[in-house]
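Render this sequence as a predicted structure.
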Amino acid sequence: MEKNSEFEKLRNEILEILSEGKKEEEIEKFIFIHDNGEIGTFFDKSIVNINVINSKDNTFIIDIYANLIFNVTIVEKLLGYLLTLNSKSLTGAFNLIVNEKESNLGIVSFSYAFMIKSIDREIFLKSFFTVGEIANYYAKEIQAKFGGLTINEYIKREDMPASHKKIKDKNKGEEKREESSKIEEIWE
C-alpha cells in the first residue's frame, strides 16, 4: 500500500513540474493521461510521454520517450542509421518497434530512462527537454531518408475523431478530452 502512495506522489510531482507557470486552460491543452496511465505532453510538433514504473527495491524508473515516425518500412539501412545515431548519443537511444500485424513496418522512437527514489526537478526537466528536442530534430530527417509518417500525419491518416467528447480516466475518475482530439486540435 505504501509503495502505491509513493508512486502516486511521484506521478503528481511530475505533473506539478510540467504544469509550473501555466494557466489551467494551457495545462489542459499541454498535458494528458493515456489510457494506460502514462503522462503525455505536447512538445512543439512531437508528443513526449512519461512512464513511471515501480521497481521492487523502492525506486522508480522514469521512462521518457517520443514516437518519431510511424509506418516506416524496416530495412537494413534504417537499422544501420539508428545504430549510428545511438553510437553518437550521450543520452537515450533510438528504438524500432515492430508492427505486430505487418512485420515489415515499425515505429521509430527515442527514449531515455533513469532510476530515482525521489524526483529531482532539474534532472527531470533536462531529460524531458532532451527527448523532445531530439524527437523534433530527427523526425523530419528520418522521414526524409526512410519514409513513414510523423505523428501529425499519422493522426490525420488514421482519421481519428476531432470531437471534444469527454471520457472518464479509469484511474482518477476525472473528465478529460479524448487524446486524439487534443492532438489533432493542436495541429489545426
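Summary. Helices lie at 2-19, 24-30, 76-88, 121-146, 151-157, 179-187. The CA atoms of residues 31 and 105 lie 29 Å apart.
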